[in-house]
Predict the 3D structure of the following.
Amino acid sequence: MPRGDKGAYTDKQKRQAEHIEEGYKKRGVSEDEAEGRAWATVNAMTGGGKKSGSGRGKKVNKAPAKKGGKKGGKAAAGRSVAARSASAKKAARTRARKK
C-alpha cells in the first residue's frame, strides 16, 4: 500500500479525520496542515488503520482529541488580559494578511 493511501482505515476513522480537519480549517489552519494534523490525531487515538485483522478490537484513546483545548486554556489562564488581547489582535492581523 503506497504512502498516503487511506484504504486501511474504517469509515468511522475517515469521518473522524474529516470532522477534525474541518475544525482546524475553521481556526485558520491551511488545507494541507489541517489534513495532516487530523490524520495524526486519528492515528494517535486508534493506532492507525483498523481494517487489517490483527489490530481490531483495541480501545480508542480519546486523550489526543481533547488535548488541544486543555492546553490552550491553561496557557491563556496564566496571562494578563492585556497580553491575551494583544495576542488575539496579532493573530487576527496575521490571518487577515494571509487570506
